[in-house]
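Journal club prep, shared notes

We agreed each person brings one worked example of a sequence with its structure written out as tokens. Mine is Ribosome-recycling factor. I'm keeping it raw so we can talk through how to read the token line rather than staring at a rendered picture. Sequence first:
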Amino acid sequence: MSNDNDLDIDTDALQRRMDGAMSALKTEFASLRTGRASAQMLDPIHVDAYGTMTPINQLGTVNVPEPRMVVINVWDKGMINKVEKAIRESGLGINPVTDGPLIRLPIPELNEQRRKELSKVAAGYAESAKVAVRNVRRDGMDQIKKAKAAGMGEDDQKMWQDEVQEMTDALIVAIDKALEAKQQEIMQV
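Then the structure, token by token:
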């Protein structure tokens, strides 16, 4: 490694960006509804509350009392209908049941066709994460080319390219494993 800072490649920044793609993927996977209830499945849903689009978890307490039930205790009774409407229109395929300040979300069994659709959606999310990781790799390789033009030696260039490629390969493998686990969870009856 040379002491000239212009010739060093910031692999920490590249790793952070690749890790960001992985954490975004995990968030997307959490929002996919499998046959089990999870509080995270409501994360993408926002409600027009007091003139601002607000996540449901900021309008009430979200609990999962049993494997096929999510319960939202809405704090402001005036928001119950808005929360219920947002859930109905979210595309999650859940029919909310209002019981006073509580909104119960019974999670129906998934049929085979819906499981296959969700599995494809998960694969799409994974592919997007891989594209993001490859874009970070390309940026890293561009940095290495610029450093070479600025005087980086062949050996250093090869070492940096190998390091960036190893980071990329490790993240692609992690994305594939996460996808495989999510697809198994989706297909589990």
